[in-house]
Amino acid sequence: MRVDLFDFDLPQELIALRPVRPRDAARMLVVKGSDAPLEDRGVRDLPSLLRPGDILVFNDTRVIPAQLEGRRGEAKIGATLHKRLDLRRWQAFIRNAKRVREGDQLTFGGGVTAIAEARHADGSFTLAFEGDEPVEVLLERAGTMPLPPYIAGKRGVDAQDREDYQTMFAEKDGAVAAPTASLHFTPELIATLDEAGIGRETLTLHVGAGTFLPVKAEDTDDHAMHAEWGRIEPETAARLNAARAAGGRIIAVGTTSLRLLESAAQEDGTIAPFAGDTAIFITPGYRFKAVDGLMTNFHLPKSTLMMLVSALMGRERMMDVYAHAIAHKYRFYSYGDSSLLLP
């Protein structure tokens, strides 16, 4: 499909630069099927919008301070870690990469150094961090939170982002972007969901920096997704399958949860245990097998995530949804408002 079919104009003032407080006070646009009227609701309404026996699936990845500023000799460079390769090596996107050659030592803050071992076909590098300290310790010393470019381009990253850009479910280090749909949840909201008989499960997908890369191809067939690592434990898969067999709906909280569930799904809709990379690219025409709904924020024009929600609800339907969201001044992107999509 043509990528420009997923384009729209967004007023810059609707890009949220900070989250609302408390987190569950955000607005939520509810979209049911293809003909039902849109409902302007709030995240706190979620327990009344779902049914007992439904299961919300969260991503428990934890964002690491993966943005590094440093030098190669006298040249300033920046590095955004994208995907862990092993204990000391990460694939990274480099700013000012034309000044970096294979074998160069890159020097970051706090005495952290890495060797640019290999350049990949997409222009990224393998960085091998030097020394004996765990890479996580080095990043805590030298790195900052990797805010999306549409926020970082408008203001500096600060200490508040260390808390704001982390979900309440964050447990497993490895993401360089937050699963932002889960940012809206609070212990109070979870307690209300529990009382309503709505279940929850977690999986892990370490979100990579590729999630922010624009689609440069003119046709979706020519776009290559970056792989991300994920895991669904056998016990989790078994509980999800049992819940669905009992009539419950599987509602993915965030596109990251959805993409991993669909990667693990069998043709009959059964969710299998999963551990490994996924580069699934969901566009209109895709047949969903594992999920019955999605809670997600509002996405960038012409992005792979705009294509994903269009696959779930229909492209024309989602273009109408986004026109409504813009007209009613919903807040967009990572720190913005939410939507609940129930096809």
From TrEMBL:
Listed under GO biological process in this entry are: tRNA queuosine(34) biosynthetic process
Concerning NCBIfam families, the annotation shows: PRK00147.1, queA
Q: What is the lineage of its organism?
A: Bacteria, Pseudomonadati, Pseudomonadota, Alphaproteobacteria, Sphingomonadales
Pfam families, sorted? Queuosine_synth
Q: Where in the cell is it found?
A: Cytoplasm
How this chain assembles, per its entry, is: Monomer.
Which protein are we looking at?
Answer: S-adenosylmethionine:tRNA ribosyltransferase-isomerase
Which organism encodes this protein?
Answer: Altererythrobacter xiamenensis
**Can you tell me which family this protein belongs to?**
Belongs to the QueA family.
Question: What PANTHER family does the database record attribute to this sequence?
Answer: S-ADENOSYLMETHIONINE:TRNA RIBOSYLTRANSFERASE-ISOMERASE
Reaction catalysis annotation: 7-aminomethyl-7-carbaguanosine(34) in tRNA + S-adenosyl-L-methionine = epoxyqueuosine(34) in tRNA + adenine + L-methionine + 2 H(+)
